């Protein structure tokens, strides 16, 4: 199980400190939630902020575009040098085209699904996807409780990937903590995004290792 801390849950007045925590805790990625105030109620990181973040960490950056018409903003975020970008199925009229654009720019292409969206909508596009981000809360706010039916979605998605012989990774985002990360791992999830469970802890760097242990991995 890989861990991607979501710095939206950190002290936004000290993003450099949040990045240092991620590096100290040996995070696998830094997860950046981009919200436009339309697709979800909140408004968060613009491309200039992410470009600045990229200058202050060695960790790869993963961008989750929670925006309407993601094609409008896609190139702006890819220009920052991020390693991977996930667009929402619900917001993408021409999903095939967007995934090709991401790949053409040398980044990994992900598709995010809201909790109520069945994984089966991705059946035909799976060969073009590097990872699927299953939302286990309704997107837009940190600190929400985990939705248990996301686990069944992960199991069904794992079955779809195996049936199509596709090697995309399954990620899960929302309400991830020591208990739910173990459940996610058992359901076939490859990596998890965690925010409040990390940055709300007394020792955020240690919380990253704690999540790994609860997922069934030994620390190095």
Describe this structure in words.
- It is a single chain.
- The chain is an alpha/beta fold.
- The chain has one domain (2-215): Aldolase class I (TIM Barrel, Alpha-Beta Barrel).
- 34% of the residues lie in helices and 19% in strands.
- The protein has 8 helices and 8 strands; from the N terminus they run βαβαβαβαββαβαβαα.
- It has helices at 15-24, 47-54, 74-78, 95-104, 149-164, 178-186, 196-199, 204-215, and strands at 2-5, 30-35, 61-66, 84-88, 108-113, 131-135, 169-173, 191-194.
- The chain has an 8-stranded parallel sheet with strand order 1-8-7-6-5-4-3-2.
- Strand 6, helix 5 (149-164) and strand 7 (169-173) form a beta-alpha-beta unit.
- Helix 6 packs parallel to helix 8 (204-215).
- The longest helix is centred in the last third of the chain and has 16 residues, at 149-164.
- The two termini are 13 Å apart.
Task: Give the topology.
Elements: E1 2-5, H1 15-24, E2 30-35, H2 47-54, E3 61-66, H3 74-78, E4 84-88, H4 95-104, E5 108-113, E6 131-135, H5 149-164, E7 169-173, H6 178-186, E8 191-194, H7 196-199, H8 204-215
Parallel strand pairs: 1-8, 2-3, 3-4, 4-5, 5-6, 6-7, 7-8
Give me some keywords for this one.
220 residues; alpha/beta; TIM Barrel; eight-stranded parallel β-sheet; 8 helices
């Amino acid at each position: 199980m890989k861990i991607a801390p979501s710095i939206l849950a950190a002290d936004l007045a000290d993003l450099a400190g949040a990045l240092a925590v991620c590096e100290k805790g040996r995070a696998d990625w830094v997860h950046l939630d981009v919200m436009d105030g339309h697709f979800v109620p909140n408004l968060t990181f613009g491309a200039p902020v992410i470009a600045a973040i990229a200058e202050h960490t060695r960790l790869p950056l993963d961008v989750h575009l929670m925006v309407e018409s993601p094609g409008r903003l896609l190139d702006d975020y890819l220009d920052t040098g991020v390693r991977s970008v996930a667009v929402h199925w619900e917001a993408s009229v021409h999903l095939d085209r967007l995934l090709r654009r991401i790949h053409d720019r040398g980044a990994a292409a992900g598709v995010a699904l809201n909790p109520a969206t069945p994984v089966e909508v991705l059946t035909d596009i799976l060969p073009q996807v590097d990872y699927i981000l299953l939302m286990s809360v309704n997107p837009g706010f940190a600190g929400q409780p985990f939705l248990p039916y996301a686990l069944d979605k992960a199991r069904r998605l794992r079955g779809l990937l195996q049936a199509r012989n596709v090697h995309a990774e399954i990620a899960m985002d929302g309400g991830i903590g020591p208990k739910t990360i173990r459940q996610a791992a058992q359901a076939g999830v490859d990596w998890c995004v965690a925010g409040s469970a990390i940055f709300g802890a007394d020792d955020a760097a240690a919380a990253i290792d704690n999540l790994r242990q609860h997922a069934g991995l030994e620390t190095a």
